[in-house]
């Protein structure tokens, strides 16, 4: 990391209480960015024996619209997703460019706080971003990024369908 550079990251996840969803069809061919998001997720999933996600063009479109909105109207702030029908992870970074892999690896850092044996998280830490990444019943992924030049901020958003993080349910 460059000396003196401001580098701050913040991550948030959504939680769900109940819902049902069905899986839409596969995306035909993927951009390098999509592939990087997907591969980083699927590595974290494979590490705990969870099947891979597949890319959804529809979810990617939704996140891309949202990322543009947050950029144009809200200076790359976190989107308010408390009532969304998809699972969502977000990463806000200041003073640095964030690749898709960096964003996912930042989320996966929460793994160190997650105890799978009793599906718990170390007190005063958060695990929800990680548990969404490895949520077995989530089948599809779509992500987008936005950069705000004035704020020197960038926002990464991924949506998951069906959503994960059901309270009291183990991710895998
Ligand atoms: C996603 O957006 C692209 C470009 O706007 C469009 O061509 C495509 O039909 C959309 N796909 C879905 C599944 O919504
Ligand atoms: C997010 O949206 C919900 C529902 O619309 C609202 O109740 C809540 O206050 C909002 N939160 C923020 C931080 O704006």
UniProtKB/TrEMBL annotation:
* SUPFAM superfamilies, alphabetized: PR-1-like (SSF55797)
GO cellular component annotations of the record: extracellular space
Q: Which UniProt keywords apply?
A: Signal
The regions listed as transmembrane in this protein's record are: none
**Signal sequence annotation:** 1-21
Q: Which organism is it from?
A: Glycine max
Identify the Gene3D superfamilies for this entry.
CAP
Locate the SCP domain: which residues? 32-168
- Official protein name in the record: SCP domain-containing protein
């Amino acid at each position: 990391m460059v000396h003196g550079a401001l580098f701050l990251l913040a991550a948030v996840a959504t939680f769900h209480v109940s819902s049902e969803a069905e899986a839409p069809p596969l995306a035909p061919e993927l951009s390098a960015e999509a592939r990087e998001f997907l591969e980083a997720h699927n590595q974290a999933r494979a590490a705990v024996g969870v099947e891979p996600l597949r890319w959804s063009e529809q979810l990617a479109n939704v996140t891309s619209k949202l990322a543009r909105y947050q950029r144009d109207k809200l200076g790359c702030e976190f989107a308010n997703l408390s009532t969304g029908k998809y699972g969502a992870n977000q990463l806000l970074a200041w003073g640095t460019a964030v690749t898709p892999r960096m964003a996912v690896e930042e989320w996966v850092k929460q793994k160190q706080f997650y105890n799978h044996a009793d599906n718990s998280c170390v007190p005063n830490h958060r695990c929800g971003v990680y548990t969404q990444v490895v949520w077995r019943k989530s089948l599809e992924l779509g992500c987008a990024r936005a950069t705000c030049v004035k704020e020197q901020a960038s926002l990464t958003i991924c949506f998951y369908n069906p959503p994960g993080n059901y309270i009291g349910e183990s991710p895998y």
